[in-house]
Structure formats: structure tokens, C-alpha cells
Model the fold of this input.
Amino acid sequence: MSLTVKWGKERLHITLPSPDPKLGMIRQTLADYSHVPPENIKLIFGGGIMKDDNYPISAYGIGTGSTLHMVGAADRPPASNAPVPPREAPQRATEPELISKIQEELQQTRQSLVPPLDVFLGVLDSSTHPLTSELEREHVRLGELLLQSLLRLDALMPEGTWEEARSLRKGAVREVQGLLDKLDDGWRACKSQPVR
Done:
């Protein structure tokens, strides 16, 4: 029986002596090849992690020519018997602190992304040449930065009774989403126009 195992950038092709070996045999074969201890190896097939080394691989639906994914590294630090010190609970932000963070994020977006967005849309409006890879890269860059801003705003969750923060966050998300829509609408409009 032969299998393919993807491990990072490597593709390993292994041949097993028996037609339905136990998972533990495959794990040990991979450990011998990779020098990763068997207990540090995770094997994945069909989106699921295979854990029981005593099961035959057919129990997981694996057959000749199947591809497994291996995750594991040899440089995992040894387990320590020292007790883990307790972590302090993270400090919860107050409503004024959260409002300040929302305002900072929105101000940062307005200062750093709105001017280049306006320039980009102006270039698209006046474009008399075909869309270049440079314009496409700028579209992607601005889109990614606006999405990052949306994600940062999304992470700022107000407590249940913080109506002012909730309203401000909702308005900030709406504004940044509007900028993203404006970017995409301008791009679509320019792409759909014939070259002048």
C-alpha cells in the first residue's frame, strides 16, 4: 500500500508493507523519516485529525493513493513539571476607553486611507488607458487596508449597556464599509467601461 503525506512543503511517498496497517505504524514511519517524535505528529485526513493509533487506516477511509497531511515539529520544548503561574485576568476596558479606541481607529482610517482612496478613484474616473497591474495592486492594497480596519472595529465589542459605544462603533463600521463599497463600485465601473 502506498500513501502520499504532505508535510509543510514536502511531499512524502511512503510504501507500507501490509494492506491495512494501524495508524500507529504510519505515525512511527513518519517519525523515523522526519525525526519528529511520534507524540508531536498530528495526522489529518479528510479535514479530521486522526488520533487513535490502534485503528487500522481503513477505519478512517484511507486507501492506496490517499493523501494525508502531517503537522509536527521536532523543536517542541520538553514538558515541564513546574506549575504554570496564574495569569492575571485581562483588564476590561471602560466605555470611555472603548469610545476612544473606536474614535482613534476611525480617525486613523480617515487620515491614512481616505486621501489615497480619493486619488485612486480620481485616477479611475479620468482613466483613458486600460487598467494596469499597478492600478489593480492599489485596488487590492486599499481594499485590504479597509478590511483590516473593519476587523479592528469588529474586535471592539461594547458591553451590553454601553449604548454610546455601540452606536459609535456601528457608525464607524458603516463609514468604513461605505469607503470599501465606494472603492469596489469605482473599480467595477472602470472595468466595465470600454477603453477610451
Q: What stands out?
A: The two ends are 62 Å apart (CA to CA). The mean pLDDT is 84. The CA atoms of residues 81 and 87 lie 17 Å apart. The helical segments are 23-34, 95-112, 114-125, 133-155, 163-192.
